[in-house]
Amino acid sequence: MRLAALLLVGFLHLTSAQERDPFSWLHPMAALQADNTGGDCPAECDCPPTFPIAMYCDSRGLKQMPYIPSRMKYVYLQHNQITSVSNDAFGNATNLVWVMLHENHIGTVGKNAFANLAKLDRLYLSGNNLTEVPASLPRTLRDLRLNHNKIAKVQSSAFEGMDNLTILLLNDNAINDMSGALKGLKSLTLLDISNNQLKKVPEGLPGMLHQLYLGFNAIDAIPDNFLNRFSNLQYVRFSHNELTDKGIPANTFNVSGLVELDLSFNKLERIPPVSTSLEHLYLQANQIKEFTLGSFCSVVDVMNFSKLKVLRLEGNEISRSDIPSESSMCLRLASDIAL
Ligand SMILES: *[C@@H]1O[C@H](CO)[C@@H](O)[C@H](O)[C@H]1NC(C)=O
Ligand SMILES: *[C@@H]1O[C@H](CO)[C@@H](O)[C@H](O)[C@H]1NC(C)=O
Ligand SMILES: *[C@@H]1O[C@H](CO)[C@@H](O)[C@H](O)[C@H]1NC(C)=O
Ligand SMILES: *[C@@H]1O[C@H](CO)[C@@H](O)[C@H](O)[C@H]1NC(C)=O
Ligand SMILES: *[C@@H]1O[C@H](CO)[C@@H](O)[C@H](O)[C@H]1NC(C)=O
Question: Could you say which residues form the signal peptide (predicted)?
């Protein structure tokens, strides 16, 4: 059905276009293009006449960047085998707002490849072969995805001046040093650096963060007053690290505002004190030896009960008989404590 309709539309365009271009039968897709300002759509891509500022070149086995007409704002180049992005890859296409280059084989990026894209808002480079953050990324970016690459070190100036950057994905790389590159990202709300090789919590984490994911690293300690520097932080994940009781200063997690805290798969022997406002707490696969009710609620004020809904404790050294009976008052919303 759809194919037949497409063919029919193609045929109608072809017959009228043939009057102007006698060779249009040689390149029927190009004949479909209504708006050719800034150059023709490359034969290997689709540029729908109804949406002349978008170019679709995804999943076509491309090994090189295609020509990009200057009118384009959105280009979809994901799922190809592109290996490099040269300095002139975007040519005159300086109006680009979204560039989708995820799931390619990109290992080399020209020093100025992205430098002239003064309106770039989203750049997806996930699932490539990058060993460093590309140089001269536009300061206008709001959503930058560099996850699933081979980045080891992040240069301190990598994200400088990105005042509007809101989402930054760096997970699944080989990062062992963030060199303070996160300083000054005053709009950043989501930061994912999980599954890297960090030994320390990165310095200069932005104060507006809402979600902070640091799981699957080798972090053994959390700095003093760590959570007090964030005003909106709700989701914190530290699972699969090397955290011990000694590495967690008293009351680190007893701050209001947190909704979810994941400390699973670490080396904790005690339940750290958490705020009564916390709703999800993951502590499975640690070495916890006692159930301390005082970590959840004040023992003097039974009316100030915990808002915990999910509490996971399986894979520790405690059993159900270690949970005191008073916990039914304190943990009245946690319908199921996993042990
Ligand atoms: C870019 O635009 C300039 C001036 O309009 C033109 O001379 C040049 O050929 C264009 N380059 C490309 C790659 O289209
Ligand atoms: C990725 O880069 C490495 C060198 O850093 C190279 O050996 C490998 O062939 C590249 N892989 C792809 C898929 O391009
Ligand atoms: C951030 O966004 C504001 C409002 O859209 C804009 O005026 C400003 O130039 C942007 N900053 C950067 C660095 O792009
Ligand atoms: C958590 O902090 C509050 C003050 O904000 C304090 O009253 C309470 O005792 C602390 N809870 C624990 C378990 O230390
Ligand atoms: C309840 O206890 C928490 C600390 O666990 C404290 O920060 C909060 O002010 C208390 N709320 C009330 C209403 O007493």
Answer: 1-17
